[in-house]
Design brief:
single chain, alpha/beta, five-stranded mixed β-sheet, 46% helix
Length: 175
């Protein structure tokens, strides 16, 4: 894994992934976005859609892999680079390995479920039949802040809803 070998083109594609994360957030989803690139061109984009699609597998990376497979007519996505705002989970890491994505670049580490080196590393496991280059830390603080702001807002909204319910219960008992 490397953190200091990024090009301006890498930053451009990660910013596109962050735009995808904004789309997720607008739909009430955890703001994770991904972009798949081949030969310098975007071939697929995606964002988390698990809540809206009622599908636990609808992570940003999976959305990108599905779209790219259809676009290229092949599930093997050889010589591609995935830019994703959050470190892939074990499910996504496995799918990326199966898809033969050559390079994975992620922004923020996932301290709970990161499977690209933070909690575990499926990309370097001896049983892996395909190896990918994994790089991390590209726009890390911006990617992390995007996620943290979402969860701060969500906690605040839940707290306000809980307080409103408590106030409603109190006013009903006074009647």
């Amino acid at each position: 894994m490397s953190t200091d070998t990024f090009t301006p083109q890498d930053e451009h594609f990660m910013r596109l992934a962050m735009e995808q994360a904004k789309l997720a957030e607008q739909q009430g989803e955890v703001p994770v976005g991904a972009v798949l690139v081949k030969e310098g061109k975007v071939i697929a984009t995606g964002w988390n859609q698990s809540i809206g699609q009622h599908d636990a597998t609808a992570h940003a990376e999976i959305q990108v892999l599905r779209q790219a497979g259809q676009q290229l007519g092949n599930y093997r996505l050889l010589d591609t680079t995935l830019y994703v705002t959050l470190e892939p989970c074990p499910m996504c890491a496995g799918a990326l390995l199966h898809s033969r994505v050559k390079r994975i670049v992620f922004g923020a580490p996932d301290l709970k479920a990161g499977a690209a080196g933070t909690v575990l590393n499926l990309f370097e496991h001896q049983a892996a039949y395909h190896y990918a280059d994994v790089e991390h830390g590209l726009l890390e603080s911006e990617c992390r802040e995007q996620l943290q702001a979402f969860f701060r807002r969500r906690r605040k909204e839940k707290k306000a809803a809980k307080q409103a319910l408590k106030n409603d219960d109190a006013s009903e008992s006074m009647e």
